[in-house]
Write a structure and sequence with these properties.
Layout: H1 2-21, H2 26-48, H3 52-83, H4 101-116, H5 124-146, H6 149-154, H7 160-180, H8 184-191, H9 197-208, H10 210-234, H11 243-246, H12 255-262, H13 267-289
Helix pairs in contact: 1-5, 2-4, 2-5, 2-9, 2-10, 3-7, 3-10, 5-9, 7-8, 7-13, 8-10, 8-13, 9-10, 9-13, 10-12
């Protein structure tokens, strides 16, 4: 609980500073801080999870976390979309250029795991906690500097999309816990990462250890990669409900992908879906872990 207080305080204060001074360049540092943090998480995990069976178990568990939450979220959003009379078909289909950032982070965790198999960085847990606070400051500055309250107000009518994603994550996490034997707080917290693997993995590690952090990381990494694979295949036929799959990534990595599928005219809906979710993830994940 003490760490949660420090984490949320750093996040909130830095968001206030970012908004007051309109900090615009904090986001450019975010990937580098996350890279270093994920390397340390990988080293910690690699020193604890060394056998092939254990590594395979991490990936299987990650898939067991990923699947229920996205299925439930999409089903909820689909039902709401039908109820609102928003179902359409024949929207654009296309391909968008993939961001190199996911592979940047995959390199970090891979290097960490390989190095961890040979040596563990001294007091690596404390290093992870320290960098997590740094990450919360950078995230806060970035969010505070990019918030546009007027645009948020105009998009209020589309809040049903991120709400469905979040409710789906909670219900899906509960299903994962029931079916596969995870603790409820771990499964729900990992599901609430909603694609933001570079934050969710480290936060879960800080509470539950490196193996669980690795599972949370890869569950959300798989979610983003599944978005790149599935959105071009189903295109606009899946409707706006498809935004629940990309979740937090729709404001950046998968924004152009969704625009090619749903049309440029839906850019604001796509962006703010990811923005609202990303705004809440840094609060929801650690809170879920303290239940």
């Amino acid at each position: 609980m003490q760490f949660l207080i420090y984490y949320l305080a750093a996040l909130g204060l830095s968001a206030i500073v970012g908004h007051a001074f309109r900090v615009k360049r904090a986001g450019s540092a975010l990937n580098y801080v996350a890279f270093v943090l994920i390397y340390f998480i990988g080293n910690w995990a690699g020193s604890q999870v060394r056998s092939t069976a254990s590594v395979l178990g991490v990936f299987v568990s990650a898939f067991e976390i990923f699947l229920p939450s996205v299925v439930v979220a999409y089903a909820l959003a689909f039902a709401v979309e039908v109820a609102l009379g928003k179902r359409t078909s024949g929207a654009k289909r296309g391909r968008a250029k993939r961001s190199k950032v996911p592979y940047f982070f995959l390199l970090a965790v891979s290097l960490g795991w390989v190095s961890g198999a040979f040596f563990q960085i001294p007091r690596v847990e404390d290093v992870v906690y320290s960098f997590l606070i740094v990450l919360s400051v950078v995230v806060g500055l970035d969010m505070g500097g990019t918030v546009d309250m007027e645009s948020l107000k105009r998009q209020a009518r589309n809040l049903w999309l991120p709400v469905c994603a979040m409710v789906g994550a909670v219900i899906g996490g509960g299903i994962s816990a029931l079916l596969f034997g995870f603790s409820v707080r771990f499964a729900v917290a990992s599901s609430l990462g909603m694609g933001w693997y570079s934050l969710t993995g480290p936060v879960v590690s800080s509470y539950m250890g490196p193996r669980y952090g690795a599972i949370a990381f890869f569950a959300n990494f798989i979610r983003e990669q599944a978005t790149f694979l599935l959105v071009p295949l189903v295109g606009g036929d899946a409707g706006e409900s498809l935004l629940t799959l990309g979740a937090s990534t729709t404001m950046d990595d998968t924004l152009s992908l969704y625009m090619s599928a749903l049309g440029d005219e839906n850019k604001l809906i796509i962006f703010f879906n990811g923005f609202i979710i990303s705004l809440l993830i840094p609060f929801l994940v650690p809170l879920a872990l303290t239940i």
